[in-house]
Design goal:
Layout: H1 3-10, H2 17-49, H3 54-57, E1 61-64, H4 71-77, E2 82-84, H5 106-115, E3 119-123, E4 130-133, E5 139-140, H6 142-153, E6 157-161, H7 166-169, E7 176-180, H8 184-194, E8 198-200, E9 206-208, E10 214-215, H9 217-230, H10 235-241, E11 246-247, E12 251-254, H11 260-271, E13 277-279, E14 284-288, E15 293-299, E16 305-312, H12 315-332
Parallel strand pairs: 1-2, 1-3, 6-7, 6-8
Antiparallel strand pairs: 3-4, 4-5, 8-9, 9-10, 11-16, 12-16, 13-14, 14-15, 15-16
Length: about 325
């Protein structure tokens, strides 16, 4: 409720002089806080503006702020862009605040196509994650975005979690990949430890040394727009030029805490003989050659779940190995 409306509603109920003085004090404080918020927003926009050039700023873009916190910033950073769901509204009237929730991308995809934009960018409600739509209206996998940023930023060191795909693990750039446990707490620790320029997670978190080793959806959007501005072709063409792999997506299996160690040992005993690489940084991650495929099994920090991810160059290999791993995990529950 606006301050003048609040005053009009309450003042007739309390006509005493003390209460009028109280209302005046609250109104003054409200005005002071409002001015402070505007000042902080302007300072933040000025800080972010140091990190992008005009070529990136004027790329035809559509932003979906999910009625979250990024709207007031994006409006000032990108005055020429098309912005949908920019007004912060905790009721989230147009779609869920999580971009990965079913149906959350539809508005943005349609707008990108109707406006013939080069890229669509959607943030989650608190703005620490960003996801991208190419100029054909297709969702771009976060691994592909990370690869694009590796190409553009050329970091000396970068951090990625154990779920990073072949595209990241086998990148051709002169950047050293450092593997971390999944989760922003662990990624940030690794970023600082290695003084890494860049980090990413499959969940849409992108980390930057220039952003205090932390994740930021808006900073990621700026970096991606820079990268697109450097491409000799469209984002969709860039995506289509990359090698195709087949992934399972994350599959969850209920499992008690007491059986976690047994499950990991069972998996290691079953696969280590033929493995090219085994990592135990976060659960267990196993890579294979001829045929080329990998999987990870790790545990949720908040639920009694084992999380399986698998990727293969060949779809038949994916299906075969996914079936075997599913049976193995279910037997160990």
């Amino acid at each position: 409720m606006k301050m003048n409306n609040l005053r009009n509603a309450i003042e007739p109920l309390f006509m005493g002089g003390f209460f009028i003085l109280f209302l005046n004090a609250v109104e003054y404080k409200y005005s002071f806080m409002k001015n402070d918020n505007q000042l902080y927003t302007q300072e933040y926009v000025a800080f972010l503006s140091n990190y992008f050039c005009a070529c990136a700023k004027h790329i035809p873009s559509v932003f979906d702020c999910s009625n979250g916190s990024t709207g007031p910033i994006i409006e000032q950073l990108f005055p020429d862009a098309i912005i949908i769901n920019g007004r912060p509204d905790g009721n989230f009237p147009h779609h869920a605040p999580d971009p990965l929730h079913k149906g959350s991308l539809v508005m943005l995809q349609k707008k990108v196509l109707s406006e013939r934009a080069d890229v669509g960018i959607i943030f989650d409600a608190d703005g620490d994650r960003a996801f991208f739509i190419d100029n054909k209206g297709r969702f771009v996998d976060p691994n592909v975005i990370a690869y694009l940023l590796l190409w553009s930023l050329r970091p000396k060191h970068f951090i990625s979690d154990v779920k990073a795909g072949w595209l990241i693990k086998r990148h051709p750039f002169e950047s050293k990949r450092i593997e971390s446990k999944t989760g922003h707490y662990f990624i940030k620790q690794a970023m600082r430890k290695w003084n890494a320029d860049f980090g990413h997670e499959e969940s849409g978190h992108y980390y930057f040394r220039d952003f205090f080793y932390c994740d930021s959806g808006i900073f990621a959007a700026i970096a991606v727009l820079h990268a697109i501005a450097q491409l000799p072709y469209t984002l969709a063409e860039f995506v289509d030029l990359l090698p195709v792999t087949h992934t399972s997506g994350e599959i969850n299996f209920p499992i008690s805490v007491a059986k976690r160690s047994t499950l990991l040992q069972t998996i290691e005993n079953h696969y280590k003989k033929d493995a090219a690489r085994v990592s135990k940084i976060d659960g267990i991650a196993v890579e294979f050659k001829n045929p080329d495929w990998w999987f990870t099994v790790r545990f949720s920090n908040t639920e009694s779940l084992a999380r399986l991810n698998l990727e293969a160059l060949d779809k038949k290999v994916l299906d075969k190995q996914l079936k075997k791993l599913t049976e193995l995990i279910k037997r160990a529950k």
